Amino acid sequence: MKTPAAPEDIAGSDDGAGRPAGSGRARGGRAPTIGDVAAAAGVSPMTVSRVINGEANVRPATRDAVTAAVAALRYAPNPAARSLAGAGALRIGLLYANPSAGFLSELLLGSLEQAALRHAQLVVERCDAEDQGLDAARRAVAGGVAGVLLPPPLCEDGAVLRFLDGARVPAVALATTQAPAGTAAVGIDDRLAALEMTRHLLGLGHRRIGFVTGAPDLSASARRYDGYRAGLAEAGVVHDEALVAPGLYSYRSGLDAAERLLALDRPPTAVFASNDDMAAAAVAAAHRRGLDVPGDLTVVGFDDTALATAIWPELTTVRQPIADMARAAIDRLVAVIRRSDRGEAPPPAQLLAHTLVRRQSDAAPRQRPRG
Q1: What is the pTM of this model?
Q2: How many CB atoms lie within 10 A of CB 48?
Q3: Are strands 184-187 and 355-357 parallel, antiparallel or unpaired?
Q4: Percent of the chain with pLDDT over 90
Q5: In the chain, N or C terminus with fewer CB closer than 10 Å?
C-alpha cells in the first residue's frame, strides 16, 4: 500500500515547495521541501513532520538531526499544510523579569526562532518589579496563551506557579532544575559548572578566591555557591566567609560586591562572579583601583552572554547555552501542552551541557606585591 504523503507535501504553497516562494532556496534555486529536510537528516518525511509538530514519540538524537537540518536549509513549514494536519498556531507566553540584558538577548533569540519553527506565537510579558509576576501571568492567561515559559527569577516564583497550575495552563521553567512537581524544566548542572570553574582557578594557583553570589531566592545561586565551596574543600582550601560578597545578578550589585572584596586587608587574587554582568562590574572595579586584569586580579563569570566578549579583557566564563535552553524549553512546552490534552504527566527536568570557556581575564596569581 502506498504510504500517505506528509501534510506539508500535499498542501502546496506559493511555489509548490512547502513554503512561500522567495523565503529560502535548496538545490537548483528552489525552496526547500520537507523531503529535502528528511534527506538531509536521514529520516522519513513523516518523522520530520512529527518533530516539527512537537510530538513526543521521536528519539532525542533523531530530533536533534531534524532540527539541525531545518536550520541548515532554513526550512519553514507551510501554514496551510499545518492547518490540514490539525496543528493550529499556539500562543505561548514568556514572562520576563531578569535584570541581565545579555540573558534576555539570548533568551529571546532562542525562543523566537523555535517558536517560529513550531508555528507558535510568542507573547512577551515584562515584569518591572518583583511582585508583578503574578499580574503578568494573569494577563497572559487572560490573553489566551496555551502555555507559559518562565525564565529566572519567575521559574521558581511560587505564586506564579500556583496560579498557572490552578488555571490549568502548563509551564516550563527555564534555567532551573528545581521546578515543582507537575512543571517541566530545562537547565544545566549549576553546581558542577561552578565546581569546574573553581577547580580551574585553583589549578592556576589561586588560593584566595572571592565569590559573588547570585540572587538569594533562586536555587541556581545556591547551587553555584555550593560548587564553589566544594571546589575549595576538594583542594583543602579553608573557606573564608570574608571572601564571599552578595550579588543580585545585576551590574550594580556586582560593582558593590567587587568593591567590598577589593577593600579587604587581604583581597582575593581571583574573583568568581555568578554571572557575566557582575564579572564585568568586577573588572571595572579593578580598573578603577589601577589593577591590571588578569595581571593583578583574575576575574571569571558565568553564562557567556554577549557581554563576556564586549569588554576588555574578554571574560573567562561558564557557557550556559541560554539560546539552546530556550529552544528546548519551547519544544518541551509544545509537548507538554499536547500531553496535557491527553492527560499525561510532564517530562522530567532536562539537563543541557555547559562549557568552561577560557579567554583573557584569568592568569596565575602575581608572585610580587601589587602596585
Answers
A1: 0.75
A2: 30
A3: unpaired
A4: 56
A5: N
